[in-house]
Design a protein that fits this description.
Layout (H helix, E strand, L loop, with lengths): L5 E10 L2 E11 L4 E5 L6 H8 L9 E9 L2 E2 L7 H7 E4 L10 H11 L5 H14 L3 H4 L12 H13 L5 E5 L7 H14 L4 E5 L3 H7 L2 E6 L2 E7 H6 L4 H7 L5
Parallel strand pairs: 3-8, 3-9, 6-7, 7-8
Antiparallel strand pairs: 1-2, 1-4, 4-5, 9-10
Helix pairs in contact: 3-4, 3-6, 4-6, 6-7
Length: 252
Amino acid sequence: MTDYIIETEDVNLWYDDNHALIDIDMQIQENKVTALIGPSGCGKSTLIRVFDRMNDIITGCRIEGKVFFKGKNIYDPDVDVIEIRKRIGMIFQKPNPFPMSVYDNVAYGPIIHGIRSRKDLDHIVRRSLESAALWDEVEERLDQSAIGLSGGQQQRLCIARALAIEPEVILMDEPTSALDPIATGKIEDLVTNLKKRYTVVIVTHNMQQAARISDYTGFMYLGRLIEFGETVQIFEKPSKELTENYITGRFG
């Protein structure tokens, strides 16, 4: 189990009577980019929310099975959910900066976790913005509202905010779907750089994006993980007919 940073065993999830995830078994490699593809409503976003227990906050949600993070089942009763969400960060589809300054957006998490020294916060803010490839664009605007940034800058700010609390895994739920091609390219370049220090799991509706930036790809359909493997294999020699039909555009 310790060979993988995240591993699921027979995960099933229901929203009330809707069986949204069915018998999910998968392993996520450390310091790699794993993409999840599939048509809308197939369970991609639900699955990555299993990894940081974000589904806990949804009324009527029930989960069975095991999800191991570094060998520990995060659904065990003794698990600290706040600690899990510190170590596994989430970037959402729509950029959601807080209505405060650029600096305060990035410093917010470290402050919540007890860091008060201005010198330490300055260092964290700069390091996080540099890691998110945003420092050069906002260095002179740290005290200005984050709401004034462009959409692509806001999304990179949200990534910097997630990096500020030093996670080990970054989950991204269609992070470029609301962005233009230039901003999308910057996020894709950023993802490629991030895997040097982090593990990235990205949900994308864009198969070309998955092919460009991921090391591993999982194809989901109707709540099931139909096929999972190295991205090159999935796109060039899928073993399941359903996968091939989706990738070649016969449905989806």
